[in-house]
Design goal:
Blueprint: H1 2-88, H2 92-105, H3 110-119, E1 120-125, E2 127-128, E3 133-138, E4 147-151, E5 154-160, E6 162-169, E7 176-182, H4 184-189, E8 199-200, E9 218-219
Parallel strand pairs: 2-8, 7-9
Antiparallel strand pairs: 1-5, 3-4, 3-6, 6-7
Length: 227
């Protein structure tokens, strides 16, 4: 009788263990399924958020691009209008001041190229010794800032048409200032380009002293600055 009871107990324990194991596995499977569902929901929510952010950024970039292009077009038109007004009143140095940076910004703009071409001429300026800084400004601009043109020798560079104030400076040499004309009227007076000689710079024994060379008369188109 005792043995039969023990057998029944063992059977009951085994059955109970199987039920517990089954319940545990079921709970584990349910937990895994729930975890996967939560991960899937988080992925969907994250993806939706990312897509939304990308859409907002794309719309912002598109709007900024349109605004930037519209602003650039308006600025280009304003620059051209200003230059055309200055051309009408013969302010070619002021045309230069606006046209040069405008052409750096819009180098392929045909109207800007046309306006600069009609108000400038190519010149060649040489000095002996070379390496002098060349600058100019409007002839009536006595106190205004000098506009740098470059360092000699300058070959075929553009300068505004008309009578200008010019300055040539080099460390250790006397600075030169003179009124010089650029354009066809000066060229008509002139000298063949091949005969134009460089400007000879004189050693500066007293720093800060400026001289005006009386023979420094004209800059001709496609020519050297001549004495």
């Amino acid at each position: 009788m005792y043995i039969a009871n023990m057998r029944d107990l063992i059977v009951d324990l085994r059955a109970t263990r199987r039920r517990l194991e089954s319940a545990t596995l079921g709970d584990a499977a349910a937990s895994v399924a729930a975890s996967r569902a939560r991960s899937r929901n988080r992925y969907i929510e994250t993806t939706a958020a990312v897509v939304g952010i990308v859409a907002v950024l794309a719309a912002s970039v598109g709007a900024w691009t349109v605004i930037h292009r519209s602003r650039a077009v308006a600025e280009r038109k304003a620059a051209i209008a200003d230059i055309e007004g200055l051309v009408d009143i013969g302010r070619f140095v002021d045309v230069w001041r606006i046209a040069q940076p405008a052409l750096r910004r819009w180098p392929n703009d045909l109207r800007l190229q046309e306006l600069r071409g009609s108000t400038t001429m190519t010149v060649t300026i040489a000095t002996d010794p070379p390496g002098a800084d060349v600058a100019f400004k409007a002839v009536d601009d006595v106190k205004g800032e000098w506009i740098p043109l470059g360092t000699s020798p300058l070959k075929g560079v553009r300068a505004p048409l008309g009578m200008l104030r010019w300055r040539i400076t080099k460390s250790g040499f006397e600075p030169i200032e003179a009124r010089l004309e650029v354009g066809p009227p000066a060229a008509a007076l002139g000298r063949p380009d091949v005969d134009a000689r460089p400007i000879r710079l004189r050693p500066n024994y007293r720093e800060g002293k400026s001289i005006v060379r009386p023979g420094l008369a004209h800059i001709t188109g496609n020519s050297h600055l001549i004495l």
